[in-house]
């Protein structure tokens, strides 16, 4: 980089750092990113909006970073909404390039419901501008909308590339070349050289950025199922998924007990009995009669879970719009406080996950997306399941895996969890369809079984738990 550009970059980064737009967290105090992933590095260029001169300078650097050479240029420019529109606008004004606007959401009223509304000729080559790229998901959304509207997109530019896989994904999967003014490592270097951060912090954040590529390889070099739970834990960023994989290894159990009993007191008694043999307990908090409901009992369950090293999965099956889900998760039964992870349908779109990420705050939380169901005649189609997988991939920092009937994804970070399991297969009451642990784990290559009535209706729930645990874990071992 030329000396003048470097000095301009240095001056911008130092001002961003001093204004709190670039922040770093010590171990254990990580920030939650938009995708739900935790990170010790936080880059938010929105504060540049407060300083027109600085914004103009940053836009100038972006423009220089994406020059095509040979006097070639772009026909127009589009900023990823909302954060990068101001940089696209500054470049548009400085270089007389038509500005294309992409809406964050399709318009619900008026003549046009299009995401991109422009009367520029089809085939115009549009440069996409973003402020910070991590996994590249937001750039991809804008590229896809522009292409759907008839634009050609070959190049994108960002101020900071966090070097967490976005550039590679854009190049290999979308044929878009991403240029950047600087990388996450360069930000660290410049701040370190200017005595803003210590060597320890620089090394810690650098290590995190290098180890946390947000894009798990499309085809992992080793088949996911050949990796054991412990190996997969190392490839998993979400703290709950990591914990579950580690618990399964430590306790030799891939059994979740679905405690669909009549009262929280019974649930607590059973949890203490079966606790040593399960990796998680699954609750349906809204099945308990309101008049008997005591929230303190659920906090007692939290203590038992911590003592006996199992997780709590609340089978909330959230399915509403983000706002409502946020209230159900945070206010309704205070689920966000005691459940490590929850289930959610993806039918209403990714807003559900974004609501859960927001509701989780700084807690280590995750969700499982319901990709398939066990009930007879359910309406889940293959196309729907594929749509769920896509949403999960775009939010892999928060989505720990799937409720499903079989293995759906080869990505080792996603845990496959299957309900509708009994030692004797067949039809249960009210349309439930049962498979055996062997069928689920060995033939269908799921990872974890959920067993409810097979345990709590058994004469000896502890003996039944041990039988399910041994059957499911033996099936898992057979596959390795
Ligand atoms: P069972 O008693 O083992 O049949 O209980 C299964 C549990 O799993 C029960 O709480 C269901 O609500 C839950 N479940 C399911 O059975 N099938 C599904 O597709 C989903 C959840 Br999603």
TrEMBL record:
Substrate binds at residues 260, 282, 374, 432, 452. Keywords: Decarboxylase, Glycosyltransferase, Lyase, Multifunctional enzyme, Pyrimidine biosynthesis, Transferase. GO terms for molecular function: orotate phosphoribosyltransferase activity; orotidine-5'-phosphate decarboxylase activity. The active site is at 315 (for ompdecase activity), 317 (for ompdecase activity), 320 (for ompdecase activity). Residues 254-468 form the Orotidine 5'-phosphate decarboxylase domain. Its EC number is 2.4.2.10, 4.1.1.23. The keyword Lyase applies. GO terms for biological process: 'de novo' pyrimidine nucleobase biosynthetic process; 'de novo' UMP biosynthetic process; pyrimidine nucleobase biosynthetic process; UMP biosynthetic process. Pathway: Pyrimidine metabolism; UMP biosynthesis via de novo pathway; UMP from orotate: step 2/2; Pyrimidine metabolism; UMP biosynthesis via de novo pathway; UMP from orotate: step 1/2. NCBIfam families: pyrF. In the N-terminal section; belongs to the purine/pyrimidine phosphoribosyltransferase family. This is Uridine 5'-monophosphate synthase. It comes from Trichoplax adhaerens (Trichoplax reptans).
